[in-house]
Amino acid sequence: MVLRILFSLLVAFIQFLVIAAWTNEYDLAAIQSLKNTWEHVPPSWVGDDPCENRWEGIGCNNSRVVSITLSGINLSGQLSSDIEELAELQTLDLSYNKGLTGPLPPSIGNMKKLSNLLLVGCGFSGLIPPSIGSLQDLVFLSLNSNSFIGGIPPSIGLLSKLYWLDLADNKLIGTIPVSKENTPGLDMLVKTKHFHLGNNRLSGEIPPQLFSSNMTLIHLLLENNSLTGNIPSTLGLVQTLEVVRLDKNSLSGSVPPNLNNLTYVQELFLANNKLTGPLPNLTGMTFLNYVDLSNNSFAVSDVPPWFSTLQSLTSLIMEDTQIQGQLPVSMFSPFQLQTVVLKKNKINGTLNIGSSHSDQLQLIDLRNNLIEAFTVTQRAGYSVQIVLADNPICSEGGTEKYCSIPQPSNTSYSIPPENCTTYRCSSDQISSPTCKCAYPYTGAIVFRAPSFSNLGNSSIFESLYEKLYLTFQSNNLPVDSVSLSNPTKNLDDYLILNLRVFPSGQNRFNRTAISGIGLVLSNRFEPPHGFGTFNFIGESYGYFADLATGPSKSLSSAIIIGAAVGGSILFLLLLIAGVYAFRQKRRAEVASKKNDPFASWEPNTNSGGVPQLKGARFFSFEELKKYTNNFSEVNDVGSGGYGKVYRGTLSNGKLIAIKRAQKGSMQGGLEFKTEIELLSRVHHKNVVSLIGFCFEQGEQMLVYEYIANGTLKDSLSGRSGIRLDWMRRLRIALGAARGLQYLHDLANPPIIHRDIKSTNILLDERLNAKVTDFGLSKLMDEPEKGHVTTQVKGTMGYLDPEYYMTQQLTEKSDVYGFGVLLLELLTARKPIEKGKYIVREVKLEMDKTKEMYNLQQILDPGVNRPPMREVVKEIESIMELAGLNPNAESASTSASYEGENKGSDNPYTNESLFTYSGAHPPSSADG
């Protein structure tokens, strides 16, 4: 009876595992895509199912992937846009993988359940996608220590649950965004505790609107940027603040008087700005530990009374702040005081620090002042380092110790103290504090606003050491011991400590343990009071252990009984295994199809082989139907022989253009495949980017980036309402030429467009030209031949006569089409109009003996004649583009212009410029 119950439970449990462990098909496809994109993934990533096979770093709940924690395991590659399929993902931690590069995909904004996005210390670059503002459950956003550029997305202000915002140590530019009209901003983050934006390139003023009395902000870190203007008085409204770092900017004006309303502030850094006005009054800031107001332009002031009233002070740094007068003895009495630096001021009189000063006082640096005398008060067993160099007291060759400039102190020690110095470890292993040889995980902990300055007292760091160790233990990490060493201050006044974490049970960590340590140091460790906020910089770990398989166990009596009755249950188990294998195979096929949308591509004479893509994504018909509001007429932005173009809007707000071929008039599977293949592998600012494609339900659709101002033809004809002055036309010509040059010279193999015309040049919002429509393009896959023999295709009026007669397509065929395009730019006429061919018309009109070659009548006059100021400006711009100085003096005689170009042919004297007979291969100057 007992055996029957156990057997029933076993069957039920096996069924539960089979059902519950299978990964959701969308999650499976996304994880497989990441695996295919990244290098150095964990070796445990084998099998068909991440959840059932327990892939390292993948956390699952009821078949859904809810966490990816892979910090510090040497991953490299880019973050695939397929990650958006992980709809239930809550934590994404890829920190400390410097090999992860490239931009963040905008699709990351579709992961609505994400609460922790931790990408610290990687190699990500590009813009921070505005779609991050869609992550309404986000609590931790840590993108610090990467190479992000551009501005801070205003959409971050929509993250109402955000607790931690860290964008420090990047290359961000622009102003700090605040809300206005329908645009969000950081002022909306009233529940956010941390603004870490230091070490970027932010500029402009700190907006007063950024701060309000209903904010709960505790850390404001804006140091080392390029911020200007005044410190807004609204800062004094945020009475929850504990750390304020505005140092190393270009802030000016007076410090707002209400700054001392911030009674909970412990660290205040305003140094190295251009602040003026009176020295701020910090009376009442009773929790203040660390003050640095150095190197500003404050007005000359007497020693402020608050020097003696702030009893929590550990560090008073006031270099070059225009302080004058004699220092009172009482200012050295705060019981925590460690450092006083008042260099380069006008302090005078006699220095007397008294006998009741703090036992922690280590340094008083008063160099470059006017001190004339020093009253020495000895205390048994205790001394303070006093520096009075460059004061009158030392001006007559004083030899006293306080007249010398101290050398930097050596703080090379370890917590806990090394107790295994005589124990030697082999190879590159290191002896742990518990005398075990191992491969530790190492890195640096950087504290951005510590409240102390005395780095020589090891007792200060003991609380940090103990808290670190206990935190690792409480998170069930296999950590045997930790050590901290070599505390130093860098130029940004950050405290840096070397950290080593040693493994327990064996001499190295596995990937799960390293990722767990990284996660703790990303957002689960709260340092002891006095250390403030921190950042961990993990080093690469190259000693991974395989996952432990666990000790073998002796056969239990239950297993013996099970073996005895094994024959009776073998069939049932085999049946379960068969069902499991069938479902796994089916799921793997689904995942494979999602990762390879061409799994159903049917190669034939009309479509060619399966396309080889690089970056383009597959869109379902239903997706594109949704993005275009069922292909509504409102979104119809153009049409042609192939069909229509629709404007669409992705879920992240990005605009796209969808080229939908007409039913029954498809360009052909081969052309469709060609355009997908070519556009997916070309990336240039003057070539339209392909985002994706759709070919299901009998549809052929290409999804491009949306180009706001339509075709060049629309602008030349006046339909777009855009006036193309000559400078704009010149820039359009240059942009189109650069796009073509990229296709010819930099694409591998080279690409011949074969259909250059004004409808295939698009203009973006800044009127930059972008080459589009690659349906007729050809690869120069045998460049040594110099041509591709192919059926003649193209558009009449732009077609190269040489190609037309010989059927030999060359890069010069594109050059001919581009020449016609230039004539179209100059004349605003169609290539063939009322039976007249523009090339022939220009040739007939051109007379090189006359001014402007007699082409005034044929050139486009433009919509309006510009005023002379615009004429002058455009001429100056053209001269500058040609490398000439528009402000240089004119030559005195015509002979002054005769140099290396003397006697050379005018470039327009080449009659072949307008020849289209195909009598000779077109030269590089041919139209």
UniProtKB/TrEMBL annotation:
Keyword presence, DNA damage: no
PROSITE patterns to which the protein is assigned, alphabetical: PROTEIN_KINASE_ATP, PROTEIN_KINASE_DOM, PROTEIN_KINASE_ST
Molecular-function annotations in GO: ATP binding; protein serine/threonine kinase activity
Entry's transmembrane regions: 558-582
Signal sequence region: 1-20
EC numbers for this chain: 2.7.11.1
Protein name, entry field: non-specific serine/threonine protein kinase
Classification of source organism: Eukaryota, Viridiplantae, Streptophyta, Embryophyta, Tracheophyta
